[in-house]
Design brief:
mainly beta, 53% strand, YmcC-like fold, 12 strands
Length: 190
């Protein structure tokens, strides 16, 4: 109950009317994330895990928006506009989790304004920005901050990942495309 109260307090002004299924999932201790769209002040909501398949977890909010992650890295979005249909982040994921700075390629497929799928390739430089103390609701935790600076022929973006010693991503700031911009994603403790 305390966990649900914390989540609802964090997102009180920004979430739609409570969804009984989301509330029940949060109350039961189901895995959950707090996600905000940085460019939209009113877009902060709890997301609960709804499905996991082939290592990818889809998280849903009360208003039907979904975000899919793979080992904490953004894989797809639905309901945000100009959605990321899919991504291939295998090289980045390996370097980030293993703390191996260097170059990685990633590919994103987006839905454009004419309902066409457009795939873009990015070259990313991954760097370790050192140790940090962060608190995601469990008290201070040690994490290493990894940055991923990516560029294509026409776009650049930076993703940030706070990674626990276990290799799990505690929180992140990940780019969801030119239309949506970065998402701030934080693990909600059980």
């Amino acid at each position: 109950m305390r966990r649900l109260a914390l989540i609802l307090a964090l997102a009180a002004c920004d979430t739609p009317a409570p969804d009984p299924m989301i509330e029940a999932a949060l109350q039961s201790g189901a895995p959950a994330l707090l996600i905000s769209v940085e460019a939209r002040e009113d877009a902060l909501a709890p997301f609960v895990a709804s499905t996991t398949r082939d290592g990818k977890t889809t998280w849903r909010s009360a208003d039907g928006v979904s975000v899919t992650t793979q080992a904490g890295l953004l894989h797809a979005t639905r309901g945000l506009g100009a959605d990321m249909l899919a991504s291939d982040t295998a090289q980045s994921r390996r370097r980030l989790i293993r703390n191996q700075p260097g170059l990685a390629e990633r590919f994103h497929t987006f839905l454009n304004g004419e309902d066409q799928a457009i795939t873009r390739a990015y070259v990313c430089e991954i760097t370790n920005r050192g140790g940090r103390q962060i608190d995601v609701g469990r008290g201070p935790q040690t994490a290493r901050l990894m940055a991923e600076d990516c560029a294509s022929l026409s776009e650049t973006f930076t993703n940030l990942y706070w990674i626990a010693p276990s290799g799990s991503i505690l929180q992140s700031r990940q780019w969801a495309g030119a239309f949506t911009g970065p998402l701030a994603i934080r693990d909600i403790p059980n």
